[in-house]
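Entry 14. Structure prediction run on the chain below.
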Amino acid sequence: QQVPAGHRSEGLSGLAFSLRMLGKVEPATQAADQALVLARESVNPAAIARSLAAIVQISVFQDEMDRARAAIEEALPFARESGDDSLLAFFLKTSGSIAVSDGDLAVARRFLDEAWANEKFAAEDSELAWQLSGLALLRGEVAQARAIAEKGIEVAETLGEAWFAHGHTAEMLARAQIQQGELDAARQALQACLGVVLEKGSALCPAHAFEGFARLALAENQFERAVRLLGAGSAIQRSLGMSVLPIERLLLAQTVDAARQALEDTAYAQAWDAGAAMSVDEAVAYALNGS
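Output returned:
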């Protein structure tokens, strides 16, 4: 007996996701395109939405944002019709992230707010709070950013994702604390975050964490220290070929702009170069201890 088109489509969508995670973009794209053809044949809303989700993920990975936007626009009605909360959350979060990348924070807020308003989304997705808290910071809504980060930490802990709560979402909380003048609390949070990601054994996340320490240094009028930390983070990211998420990129731009205004050009360049010359271990020690 022939397998229904909808079932074959979902199998191919799963294969596309797996291939993309392995970095095999061309076969992933082929699998996702075939999945979409079969899904449309089946007229199954969930199958159509899942195949489009695979196309969106691959398109974002390849920085083909026009294709990603078109796929999301087609997928959202099917995701809503399917009743699959995880699918809808994926499209809303990805739409928000793309809007942030485009610099359209109002549109990003609309998508992420819709996801956050759904109690099921909010209770099952630790990354959502991280995104929405960062967006609130970018919009200058510090109290809201803090409240969302605190809720996000609770959600992540409930889901058994303490590493995400204390390695990532707590960084957003620390940024809000800096804005609210609670510098000692922010320092403790940032040190704890860095400890968590170091325990995970990744050099990637510490590079992101240095921006938070740089914000703290700026708040304490330690301008050269802030620039060294920014230089260290930038050099590590570049050496590892890291990509930076849109929210992280805009938060970093805020801090870099503030640091540039705090120092004259020569002092800024010297401090940046000093930070960029640090090894990962040296930069971590400098962030944690100032030496």
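The chain is about 85% helix and 0% strand.
Filed with the rest of this week's runs.
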